[in-house]
Write a structure and sequence with these properties.
single chain; mainly beta; Jelly Rolls; 4-stranded antiparallel beta sheet; elongated
Length: about 100
């Protein structure tokens, strides 16, 4: 990437459960990568930070990569994650803001 300085970055492993997890990057990310390390599927909502079990499913072992052109002035400030009742998932979340 070009530019001066460093882009904002977010890198963490979240523990999703049957209770919604509200993830906030603290900036608008133009690139997001999620890796579901298991042990169950996780549901994700990028329209709101409140996920339900009817949202997009990221299955065990799957990777999701999202990106937008930085010139479109769009992106993601966070998302919601949830598992089915009694289940959990460990999801690595990496996000970066273009500069």
């Amino acid at each position: 990437m070009g530019g001066v300085g460093a882009a904002n970055q977010y890198d963490t492993v979240l523990s999703a459960s049957q209770t919604n997890t509200n993830v906030s990057f603290g900036f608008t990310a133009t690139k997001v990568i999620l890796i579901n390390a298991g042990p169950n599927s996780v549901r994700l909502n990028f329209q709101s930070r409140t996920a339900t079990t009817s949202n997009f499913e990221l299955k065990i072992g799957e990777t999701l990569s999202l990106s937008v052109d930085k010139d479109q002035e769009t992106g993601w400030t966070g998302f919601g994650a949830i598992c089915a009742s009694g289940e959990t998932a460990s999801v690595r979340v990496m996000a970066q803001e273009a500069f």
